[in-house]
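Hi C.,

You asked whether I'd gotten around to modeling the 264-residue construct. I have! Everything is below, sequence then structure, no commentary in between.
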Amino acid sequence: MEDEEKCLNNNYSNDKKVLHAEYLKDKEELTRIANSQIGSYEGFAIWLESYLSERTDNNALFEKKMAKEISPSYSSVFNDFKSFEKRYGAFAIVAQLGFPKYYDQSKIVAVLKNFLEKEFDSIELCILYGSKKPYSDIDIFIVSDSVKSFSNHWLDIYSLSRSEFDEKIKNFSIDALDPVFSGEVLKGDNIEQIKQRVLSMPVTEDTISYNLKKSEEQGQIAGMYHEDSKERRIALSYQRSYYENAKNLKEGKKILTLKSIESQ
């Protein structure tokens, strides 16, 4: 680094100084990322060893190894992993690091209780939906006046207040209909009543206009994001879904899931 800076100060033109300064900045960032990733890998490796030791009655051996062989810096990272596990659970650690996610309803309920804590009790309806593939995000639909929408690298919570949910159901909004008709109920016992309500509701000009307006809004939202961004792709997808929904409603057809729209 010292030689690089000397070269920068003595021999480079202004343009080359700028380029070299950018190089040094990029090099520093790359080093930071590498160190961060190494810490994550080492932290996970130690955490996994601890996790398995506890389940095979070898915790004493693990503690002995920690005291003799593990450096303070890695011990600190390991403690961060343990704190995360205590707060969110072991499943969340594995998911956060990008491993495939295999789960059932009870595991997702446990995850939600860890994340939402007391707010979990406010949930009127909770549905697991989406592709449910191991490498895909876990999609959760919630009706609650307390829980807010939330997204990280592996968990997407889409939450509506009761009034918002009722408004969307009344207007055949596909973002509410899709989880109701395609998902698995994790909490709430009135799902069949909601389905019957949707199936018996009449289609009106207002519901058609509502979906056309939502399609237009999603198009505007898409324009706010970079062409290759995830947000833009999602907005464009919903723009089409709302439009196709409006078109089908105008023909007297009720399309209840995104899969049905995508198959048209």
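If it helps when you're writing up: Residues 1-13 have pLDDT under 50 and may be disordered.

Thanks,
B.
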